[in-house]
Amino acid sequence: MDTLQTDFDAVVIGAGPIGLACGIELKKAGLSYTIIDKGCLVNSLYNYPSNMTFFSTSEKLEIGDVPFVCNSPKPTRPEALEYYRRVATSWKLNLKLYEQVKEVTNRGYFNIETSKANYSAKAVILALGFYDLPYLLNVPGEELPKVKHYYHEPHPYFAQKVVVVGGANSAVDVALETWRKGAEVTMVIREEGIRESVKYWVRPDIENRIKEGSIKAYFNSVLHEITPHHVKIQTPDGIVEQENDFVMAMTGYKPPFEFMRNAGISFQNDHWHTPVYNEQTMESSVQNLYLAGVVCGGLKTNKWFIENSRVHAAMIVSDLKTKIA
User: Fold this and answer.
1) Quick one: 227 and 261 in the same domain?
2) pLDDT tens digits, residue range 50-94?
3) Is there a single domain that holds both residue 125 and residue 166?
4) Which of 36, 161, 201, 300 sits between 20 and 30 A of 225, alpha carbons compared?
5) pTM for this prediction
6) What is the H or E stretch that residue 196 is in?
7) Number of H helices, E strands in the chain
8) How far is CA 313 from CA 19, 25, 62, 236, in A?
């Protein structure tokens, strides 16, 4: 490895907070690197709802010893975007944005083919998010343009009949925001109630709105069919049909498993499709191919967050320094 001539010592795929943290550690170690992302800086955060507030307090989102100062204990999306822009500028990180990685191949070194170029590296760090691949409903009519798997703001849904699918945080936020901006909201929830994981300061709000009838909710229910002007809901009491303008499918997202498998990564034989990696070094089943952040949890997308996976960056670079002269 130490005599191999490549474009970079390491290529980081993913310019989210953990990808940026990896870039910072690589720069501190004096290793050559670049960070590649198919979207903008912290693309997943950018695509969060406009009015989103983080679970975590600001100091738990900090990376690279750059202070995160915000107006309240829990920062907002705009504050987070400003902060990570400042991190990237402060550290003068080597970024290649709006450049999609098509394939990573191992030839004794790594070849990284993107939409714009080809790069070679001694090591690759996958700091991939999971916000690009939504879980599909797999029901007739899901392909209709009125079905949305992403939500940005409530204004477009004023005076519209909206069905929100899901009972977790995203679904609850969408239901409450659109209702407060004038939508007629119905929730369709597979479970018997609102999930216990819903933010403690939001849970009473949604439960009270459902109880008073402001927001209608069908529990133990799923969407059966979507048509241009109606939805059919499978409930414990049978099929219910109602008029509908928009379906907000807040059913969650999953990691890019196919991309990871094509890179040679092995997975545990478990329900969660957990990738195989060394918990001390974060190295995957492929030598010198590392995992960082939420991608380590497989389908357990609520296992790793910014605050508890920031340490992955230092762990990875500490191992890399023993291999790269």
Assistant:
1) no
2) 888 887 899 999 999 999 999 888 899 999 999 999 999 999 999
3) no
4) 300
5) 0.86
6) none
7) 8, 15
8) 8, 6, 13, 48
What pLDDT is stored for residue 32 in this prediction?
97
Residue 140 lies in a domain: no
What is the DSSP annotation of 60-97?
A: GG--TT-----SSSS-BHHHHHHHHHHHHHHTT--EE-
- Among 249, 273, 308, the domain-final residue is 249
User: What are residue 249's DSSP bridge partners?
Assistant: 165
Pick the last residue of a domain from 231, 249, 267. Answer: 249
For 204, the enclosing helix (H) or strand (E) is: helix 203-212
Assigned domain for 1 exists: no
Do 269 and 124 belong together in one domain?
yes
C-beta neighbour count of 118 within 10 angstroms = 11
Q: Is 302 part of a structural domain of the chain? A: yes
Given this model, what pLDDT does residue 253 score? Answer: 85
> What is the pLDDT at residue 120?
97
Q: Are β-strands 161-165 and 246-249 bridged in parallel, bridged antiparallel, or unpaired?
A: parallel
Structural domain span for residue 195? 147-249
Dihedral of alpha carbons 234, 237, 238, 244, sign: negative
What is the distance between the alpha carbons of residues 44 and 16, in angstroms, rounded to a whole number? Answer: 7
For the chain, how many structural domains are there in total? 2
Q: What was the pLDDT predicted at 1?
A: 43
Strands 230-235 and 222-226: antiparallel
Q: Which is more confident, 48 or 87?
A: 87
CATH of the domain at 46: 3.50.50.60
Contacts of 7 (CB under 8 A, 6+ apart): 32, 119, 120, 121
Q: In which region does residue 74 sit, left (phi positive, over 0), alpha (psi from -120 to 50) or beta (all else)?
A: beta
